[in-house]
Amino acid sequence: VSHVEQGAVLAKDYKIPDLVAAGITEHHGTTLIQYFYHKAVEAAKEEGKTVDESVFHYKGPKPQSKETAILMLADIIEATSRSMTDQNPEILESMIHSTIHGRFDEGQFSECDLSIKELFKLEKAFMHSLDGTFHTRVKYPGQK
After folding, report:
1. In sequence order, which residues have a C-beta less than 8 Å from that of residue 32 and are 6 or more positions away?
2. Do 8 and 24 contact (CB within 8 A), yes or no?
3. Average pLDDT of adjacent 10-residue blocks, the chain of 144 residues
């Protein structure tokens, strides 16, 4: 969480343009910090306790522009794709679709002008980008 706050301070100190600075503060919106939330739930379950989910959300704000909404999606889609053990096109496509629709359902785009039509275009663009990154390449002579 601190990388957002530290980034905002650095952006101000270095007089970073407002749109770029907004990307720093808005790229997680108010999403759930899933990794730490699930770890806390596991630990609490062992002790017979519960966890207050509200303390495991980024402070926001939600994306205020199309650019910061796209940055939010690019950040989570890229990170998720790198953690996947199976990166075949069908699984990548499903991950991209569920990620975009998950952020939409959470209301993360409610404060920006990103349209449904643009979300579908983004889905295709992310797939095209990741497909190019993860497709199997031919081995050249001498390569293992």
Report:
1. 53, 56, 57
2. yes
3. 95 96 97 96 96 96 98 97 92 97 98 97 96 64 72
